[in-house]
Amino acid sequence: MDFDEEPVFILGEPYSALHDRDSIKYDIRSRLWITYRRGFHAIVSVGTFTYESGPLEYEEFPLTEEPVFILGEPYSALHDRDSIKYDIRSRLWITYRRGFHAIGGTGPATDQGWGCMLRCGQMMMAQALVLHHLGRQWRWQPCCSNEKYWKILRMFEDRKMATYSIHQIASMGEAEGKAVGQWFGPNTIAQVLKRIAVYDEWSKLVIHVALDNVVILDDILKLCKPQPGDSESELHPSGAVNGEAAADKFLPEGEKFSHFVNDSLPQTESQKLRSRPYATGGICNGNSSSSGADSQAGDDAGKYTSRASQAEKQGCNRSSNDKTKTTSSSPSSSSSSSPPSSSKWKPLVLFIPLRLGLTEINPIYFDSLRKCFAMKQSIGIIGGKPNHAHWFIGYVGKELIYLDPHTNQNVVDLDSRSMSSDLSYHCVTPPSRMSFSKLDPSIALGFYCATEKDLTDLCLNFSLQDSSCRSMFEVREHAPEAWPSLGCEGLTAAVTPPQRTRGISLSDFATFDGLIGVGSSVDDEEFEMI
């Protein structure tokens, strides 16, 4: 090697090739030289990950005495760390994929950059199917051999024929005015999943999407509890559509559903119900019927306990009867009961799209959101930050826990049942967390009710008085006068098979564009920043 007086620089250090030869040598030797290696432990290949949101930082779950809830399950961050880990790992983590067949034949072959809300909707729907077919206490293990698990997984595979595939969701989104490759908001994905679910003959779930922050019990009961023959004349011999009559069937003899809702409130709230049409209770507003029976005197707080226990007793009896009619031995709901007979009750997935603020979420709703995660029927919340959707599965203290779809993985072949394919659908790293205050105000709550009793319990939890919770939506027995009614135009055979159109309310398909309680009409697009 020839040495001359030309300057030498090594990572910012100047040297003389004539006089600093040893220094140059030792400087270069001090750098870490990292090369190819062989003989290390085998790497489980799940394809090359591409992370959209920059460098990832995994934080271990905090050691805190603050309460922890994961989809209705309570935990201690101090004593249940392994249980928390296995619970979260058992949720289906559905992310961006690349390399699938082009959507529509000529569309995109990856959903990176536009499909995060679609993936969040898939994750929430997958959780409903896990509850329905496997039960809340089911836990995933690598190389799982459970046939129902693999059948659920294949329903979300990235191929056209999979029921809840990205191809089906993106294509069905066009019926909601969303071109393939365009962002979805929380309400849009809920409406699309509702349209697709009617083709899921295995699960036979009913999806109801609340309209304008209002849950109409009539609509739910007509969908979930059809009578033999599935005709309106058999549902109601008089020809009138009456969801209250259906609701009354699972209450004690002589009781009315309107009594049950109203008397479930403490005495002070019952008194308010007599003097005005609505009263605040828990995380929702409860509707008061105008029937004369509702104004009877003598309501007191004790009725809440007696009526709730009576309804629970009858609900348990009905649930027990349903269990004897099913051949499945696997638990299917958060209460670990088997799927009920479809002739009695069709399991419900309830989406409640909300907007809890204008440009930022209003902090008064934080406790109400926490209460939702504590309900056993919860299947989480879809929402996130502008241009960045997440599936929220719980909370610890002041932080939300979520699964993030912003990881781009290669498409996998689930028919092979390989470990790498299986692992790519489960998040084995510590879950992500974010402050409640960073949540975008446009969200959708999700709940799964396997039985009538689950719906009854859910409505009770909605209405339970809690001074720290602010109402986020309204629950009514009947639709308001101006509400879209059954039989309106808009339910076509192309969207819903003819045998399933009876009893479906137009509100289930209408665009969510009015927001009661917020004071403005802000549509789903506010979340959809491209």
Count up the helices: 15
Helix content class: 25-40%
Low-confidence sequence ranges: 44-48, 231-281, 288-342, 486-523, 525-530
The count of DSSP E runs of length 2 or more, i.e. the number of strands, is 18
Average of pLDDT: 74
What is the CA–CA distance across the termini? Answer: 57 Å
The major sheet is characterized as:
9 strands, mixed
Strand content of the residues, in percent? 15-25%
InterPro entries: Papain-like_cys_pep_sf (IPR038765), Peptidase_C54 (IPR005078), Peptidase_C54_cat (IPR046792)
Enzyme class: hydrolase
Biased composition (Polar residues): 306-319
Protein name: Cysteine protease
What features would you describe in this structure?
The chain is of the alpha+beta class and 530 residues long. The chain has one domain. It is 27% helix and 16% strand. The protein contains 15 helices and 18 strands. The chain has helices at 21-29, 81-89, 116-133, 147-154, 166-172, 186-197, 217-224, 232-235, 243-248, 257-263, 267-275, 302-323, 366-374, 419-423, 452-463; strands at 7-10, 13-16, 50-51, 67-70, 73-76, 97-98, 206-209, 214-216, 278-281, 284-287, 348-355, 378-385, 388-396, 399-403, 407-410, 432-435, 442-449, 473-476. The strands form 4 sheets. Strands 4, 5, 7, 11, 12, 13, 14, 16 and 17 form a 9-stranded mixed beta sheet that branches. Strands 8-18-10-9 form a 4-stranded mixed beta sheet. A hairpin with a 2-residue loop joins strand 1 and strand 2. The model is unreliable at 44-48, 231-281, 288-342, 486-523 and 525-530 (pLDDT under 50).
